[in-house]
Design a protein that fits this description.
Elements (H helix, E strand, L loop, with lengths): L19 H18 L6 H9 L2 H7 L1 H19 L10 H47 L1
Subcellular location: Membrane
Protein name: ABC transmembrane type-1 domain-containing protein
Organism: Adineta steineri
Length: 139
């Protein structure tokens, strides 16, 4: 800020998993393999799946606990609502534990949801880098 201009030393280093050369080389090798495998109808989707591996599936599996937590939270809330009925036999300790569990479930669902979004964005960034590099090489 004091210098008024930016130098290359002011920029952060790119993480190794976002290296354009490595990602483009991997996608290009898988594309050439796909062209050899089926010369009439090569599929960019299959080449991309082989490039990315199981990562999209594992990211998608993060949606399962989020869904389960989002189902469980209102169920616990219905049990907690029984505490506020007249002549309720529920103890204060049980009501507090239900309330705390609702907060913990909300926190866990939020944490896992943000991890899912973050990893999805990173995966999209990797795909974009690989596709851009492949198009750049083609041009």
């Amino acid at each position: 800020h004091k210098q008024g201009t930016l130098d290359l030393t002011d920029l952060y280093d790119i993480p190794s998993y976002l290296d354009a050369t490595k990602l483009t080389d991997k996608l290009e090798a898988n594309w050439f393999d796909e062209m050899k495998r089926s010369p009439q109808k090569p599929s960019l989707v299959r080449a991309t799946v082989r490039t990315l591996g199981w990562t999209p599936l594992l990211i998608g599996l993060l949606l399962i606990p989020i869904s389960l937590l989002n189902i469980i939270q209102p169920l616990i809330l219905t049990f907690l609502m029984n505490f506020f009925e007249p002549c309720s036999t529920m103890s204060n300790w049980t009501a507090w534990s239900l309330a705390i569990s609702i907060v913990c479930i909300a926190f866990c669902a939020s944490f896992i949801g943000h991890q899912n979004i973050y990893r999805t964005i990173l995966l999209g960034l990797e795909m974009r880098i690989a596709y851009s590099g492949l198009i750049y090489r083609k041009v």
